[in-house]
């Protein structure tokens, strides 16, 4: 891994159009970096919910679960990537799955950058200053959405309108995947139950 | 055999490890004591009041009560029991000796009596206001039981023609205005002036719009609409007057977030609700049981008030800011539980709950914990935060889950400018606003203390940086050594 691989995401988040172009056509993106960013976001979210200042931390410490927090970030991430790939394949998108993962991962960089410092800063804030904390968190989220928009647009070579439509469809497809997944799981469970019951019945009869 | 013993001990160990429910401190209470923490979870708490005895009419020597519906304690410490079924009022002193039984009085030379009296209020001059529901009137009697006057069915433009006046509960303020909860009156509490003339309604319960219901109404036909339930405001269930002339009123409105109101003279609700959750009794309940139904309220010393929940037979006590202090009581057939609770009063330091179903009065005595909470809450009410600290510490000794105690101690520490300690206590009590105040002061303190050191370090750092830059420029002038160009420009440069 070269030093430029590490500094490239920082360039990308401030020059998204250039950055995503280079990511796609100059091969500057690395899947590994995207996954590291994802990991950083997970870690900073966990740290935030555990160690953010008392005035901004409304989490019940008895109900914090790092595994659940990890899953609530990692699962939607890959769900997004898969749905986005599925929908863009049908809608003449030019992006490969690898590029979608990279685009999404690199879009998360502002979150990874802002969450940790704000967690530290929140411990030194009084009530009136917490507005600043929430402002910065909103900035991180908006920045992420904007980057995701530019990333999708560049990677698939879409127009702005088509990108918005695609993103909305991606969210819908995420829902469909979750629905189908639950359906399959529930059916599989019933089928297994059925077989187990027959086996039990037979074994009791003999 | 050995295996069996082994299994037995194992299961015993498992039982111990699981921890069977059963708080050790509430052994003699026939109900579970609990309170809600700042997460709105019910957590066990020591019993604040324990049943002391049960008093029936036979115990007092006046024959059994029949469907008693109200009790009142006067300023002189006399207890008045409204024995509805026997149409009489039994007056008892603080030692449970019967002073008198009022079942008839002389009105204009004619003997008169009650018919199904349901409510009673005793004012400061020890005058009795009896809601004589069977006779559709309110009877005012003197301290000696002599007839003074009646308040009859009012006539007013705002009352409909076929209006039946059935007073159920009554309260009187210092100015002599009479407040009446009457049956079938949804407009609010009826208010009469000193001479008995109807003034108007106060404190109407508002109907909150239900948008789902509204939507169905839009879709349904006229015939369907006619069959639907009418949405009328709920009736009030009971009244009490506090020392400042504010009217406490309860209403039975399942699902209401404000079943308890404190009405000022112009009829606005001014109850303070600064607690973590609604002043509405149980905030967590099984759907089969349903929310609390407030049947009576009792204003106590130093801003405390207790409300009686008729669906569970529980008594909820709040302080003047709307913090839930303790919960006790319950339904059942054991001594100390009630069947059909109807009214609550305070006699000395004892709490009395009138059980209409069993026609008796349950007497509850405060425990060490209850007394400590009452004392601390009283000192907090009068603003003696510092004197309240020992009482709060006593409370914490018995119940480490009591958030209010931490906040009380924190407030005292804040006054003593012990900001760091105050922060710890406010965090334990989950009081974010007070924590913020303490933290602000503490932060300023620390900054003041370390300002000199920080500035010295900063100046030294600036000086070091300036020196380094200076030395760097000297070297630069000597031999050219430019750093590599930024990595992302290099590829572009190559392309171009």
From TrEMBL, chain A:
The keyword Transmembrane applies. GO terms for cellular component: membrane. InterPro entries: Yip1_dom (IPR006977). The keyword Transmembrane helix applies. Keywords: Membrane, Transmembrane, Transmembrane helix. It is a multi-pass membrane protein. Pfam families: Yip1. Residues 11-179 form the Yip1 domain. Its main location: membrane. The chain crosses the membrane at residues 33-54, 66-88, 100-120, 132-152, 164-188. It is found in: Membrane. This is NHL repeat containing protein.
UniProtKB/TrEMBL annotation, chain B:
The chain crosses the membrane at residues 451-471. Keywords: Membrane, Repeat, Signal, Transmembrane, Transmembrane helix. SUPFAM superfamilies: NHL repeat, TPR-like. InterPro entries: 6-blade_b-propeller_TolB-like (IPR011042), NHL_repeat (IPR001258), TPR-like_helical_dom_sf (IPR011990), TRIM-NHL_E3_ligases (IPR050952). The keyword Repeat applies. Residues 1-26 form the signal peptide. Pfam families: NHL (PF01436). This is NHL repeat containing protein.
